[in-house]
Design brief:
Shape: extended
Number of helices: 10
Number of strands: 0
Length: 190
């Protein structure tokens, strides 16, 4: 009987070890981060007032962002007045975003430190998360509101050109929702 078991087990021994799945380790290396929940690039972005994708709801629905509009000023044929107004929106947004981003980094660092020191409690975590949520919402609102403030300064043609330059034209052509927005925007402007 033993020789039969041995014969049956031989194929199992021949299975290469690489065929077995490795344990998942999606956070490998992140334990070295200063603030575990934020990458260095996220920290840098928050410190510099970068968008970090916080205004995608606006950006991808035909509400251009001030930084990108200024970068594309020549291609969009912005007037001097438009440039000044958009620059003012951008500067205000950036100043607010830097202040809010700095506070968010500090709050995330406090949360990280609570756990690192083994001092976290339900109440402390809830309190910090409430603050982090509020700061995150304010920061996102700052970016979204800049997009809102900018849109009325551009013509429909400039917005269409912006979308084209940013690679969003496929969404414009195929989105029935966009057609309704364009009609409403044209009606609003008249």
């Amino acid at each position: 009987m033993r020789p039969i078991i041995a014969i049956l087990l031989i194929p199992l021994l021949l299975i290469p070890s690489f065929a077995l799945p490795e344990p998942s380790a999606p956070y490998r290396g992140q334990q070295q981060r200063t603030i575990k929940a934020l990458s260095n690039s996220e920290i840098e972005g928050l410190q510099n007032g970068a968008g970090l994708g916080l205004a995608l709801a606006a950006e991808l629905n035909h509400y251009p962002g001030p930084r990108h509009v200024l970068e594309l000023a020549q291609a969009l044929q912005l007037s001097e007045l438009q440039s000044r107004q958009i620059r003012a929106i951008y500067q205000q947004m950036k100043a607010e975003a830097i202040e809010q981003g700095t506070k968010l980094i500090e709050a995330e660092a406090a949360l990280d430190q609570l756990f690192a020191n083994g001092e976290a409690s339900d109440q402390q975590v809830d309190q910090l998360l409430t603050g982090i949520g509020r700061l995150s919402a304010q920061l996102r609102g700052t970016h979204l509101k800049a997009h809102l403030a900018l849109k009325p300064l551009l013509s429909e043609q400039q917005i269409a050109r912006y979308d084209e330059l940013r690679g969003y034209t496929a969404a414009i052509d195929s989105s029935p929702h966009h057609q309704g927005n364009r009609h409403a925007a044209e009606h609003h402007r008249h």
